[in-house]
Amino acid sequence: MTQNALSNVSRETIDQLEAFVALIEKWNSTINLISKASLPHIWRRHIVDSAQLFELAPRTGHWVDLGSGGGLPAIVLAILSKGTGGSHQFTLVESDHRKSAFLRTSIRELDLQGRVISERIEGVAPLGADVLSARALADLTTLLGFCAHHLKPEGTALFPKGQNWKNEHAKAQDNWSYTSHAIKSETDPAAAVLKIQDIKRV
Ligand SMILES: C[S@@+](CC[C@H](N)C(=O)[O-])C[C@H]1O[C@@H](n2cnc3c(N)ncnc32)[C@H](O)[C@@H]1O
User: Fold this and answer.
1) Using N-to-C axis directions, what is the helix angle for 97-109 and 74-83, rounded to 10°?
2) What SS3 state is found at 197?
3) Residue with the nearest Cα to atom 25 of ligand 1?
4) Is the ipTM, as predicted for this complex, more than 0.95?
5) CA angle 29, 139, 39 (to 5 degrees)
6) C-alpha 156 to ligand 1 mean position (Å)
7) Closest residue by Cα to residue 150 from 137, 161, 162, 168
8) Could you report the per-residue pLDDT of 11-59, keeping only the tens digit for each?
9) Which of 5, 135, 136, 161 has its CA 20 to 30 A from that of 142?
10) Residue of the nearest CA to atom 15 in ligand 1?
11) Distance between CA atoms of 132 and 122, rounded to whole angstroms?
């Protein structure tokens, strides 16, 4: 990759991302944050893949990331927001308590803005998100149900999706109407980031 989502970020932001990668590598020996097979490719497969969401979102507002796992994309986005003077408030929802401990440690050690809710998404009171993201969590139909509960009516959802995204999009039409843009992924030519707004149940 010559140009990518990290091409124009500052040295300080790269330092923070490197510190986050070091935390993932350290914790991954005891908790499965990312697959061992993907560790050697962590920058492209996980960090750039997460970072590409940042430019697609407004510069301010409440950003909710569901099923945050090892902090992808949420911790990467909080680092970029801090580095670019963005003013987001991040909420990370992750039901696994060990992963939540990792997320809280990352927020503290990297001096980021963000809170972690260690509960199942379905049991959390509506969060009123301006931006909602979720990576590798569920199919699009399920994610749109989460949006109905946690995203403001005028909010924006950002979902990185694999090569099956067109099928998920077609199936979701059975239950939902929405406007969507598919932005080609920087890290996988068959994948896309779906930017979704105006979500209504049909
Ligand atoms: C496949 S992992 C993806 C993690 C991360 N977003 C990534 O891209 O690497 C899905 C994560 O969502 C969490 N999760 C799954 N269902 C959930 C639910 N209903 N409520 C909260 N967290 C959930 C799991 O514990 C897991 O950490």
Assistant:
1) 10
2) strand
3) 96
4) yes
5) 20
6) 20
7) 137
8) 999 999 999 999 999 999 999 999 999 999 999 999 999 999 999 999 9
9) 5
10) 67
11) 15
63 forms bridges with which residues in the sheet?
90, 131
Domains recognised in the chain with CATH numbers: 11-201 (3.40.50.150)
The amino acid that residue 33 corresponds to is L
Report DSSP letters for 17-50, one per residue: HHHHHHHHHHHTTTS-SS-GGGGGGHIIIIIIHH
Q: What is the tens place of the pLDDT at every residue in 136-173?
A: 999 999 999 999 999 999 999 999 999 999 999 999 99
Rounded to 5°, angle at Cα 31 from 107 and 67 = 60
State percent of the chain over pLDDT 90: 95
Residues 6+ apart with CB under 8 A from 12: 83
Which residues, 6+ apart, have CB-to-CB distance to 87 below 8 Å? 59, 60, 81
Dig out the tokens for 73 from the structure. Answer: 């994309």
Tokens at 92, concatenated: 């990370």
Structure tokens at 144: 């749109």
Per the rule left: phi > 0, alpha: psi between -120 and 50, beta: everything else, 128 is left
Is 196 labelled as part of a ligand binding site? Answer: no
